[in-house]
Specification:
It comes from Streptomyces hygroscopicus. By secondary structure, the protein is an alpha+beta fold. It has 4 helices and 9 strands, in the order E-E-H-E-H-H-E-E-H-E-E-E-E. The protein is 30% helix and 30% strand.
């Protein structure tokens, strides 16, 4: 099935790309979550608008990405959340929480969709997350989760 991506999907493509995927993947995952729309001749006109929006938000060069990487890696991110006696959190830390904590710590504004958390963060302490800034540049950010 041919689809038009409306958001970046890891391993598949960026917003505005027209890709061919299995029918079930598109019908059951990508389209319901708003990550893609079905390809039509009318939808092809929307591709340019999606790409224009992507160019505005995107870090254009590797040099810019490296500058933002240096800023991110220099920021001490501390996230306060509710936790039980044993150090387990009530819920987990989401990429949106991490993005707002980076902003609060004086770091650059980061899109939550670019933050990759390997395993759900459900305990207090120091954790590492990755931020994809460019296709070739990713920043490692240390996040310290403390009890509020």
């Amino acid at each position: 099935m041919k689809i038009i991506l409306t958001h970046e999907v890891s391993g598949l493509g960026a917003a505005g790309d027209v890709v061919d995927v299995k029918d079930g993947y598109a019908r059951n995952y990508l389209v319901p979550r708003g990550l893609a729309i079905r390809w039509t001749k009318g939808g092809e006109k929307d591709v340019e608008q999606i790409r224009r929006g992507r160019r505005i938000r995107e870090i254009a060069t590797i040099e810019q990405a490296n500058e933002v990487k240096a800023q991110l890696e220099g920021v001490k991110v501390q996230l306060k959340t509710r936790a039980g006696d044993a150090g387990r959190l009530f819920g987990s830390v989401t990429p949106a929480d991490i993005a707002s904590a980076i902003k609060d710590a004086g770091g650059p504004d980061v899109d939550k969709r670019r933050i990759e958390v390997k395993a759900p963060i459900k305990t207090l302490g120091a954790h590492q997350v990755s931020v994809r800034l460019h296709a070739e540049v990713a920043a490692k950010v240390g996040v310290e989760v403390v009890a509020a």
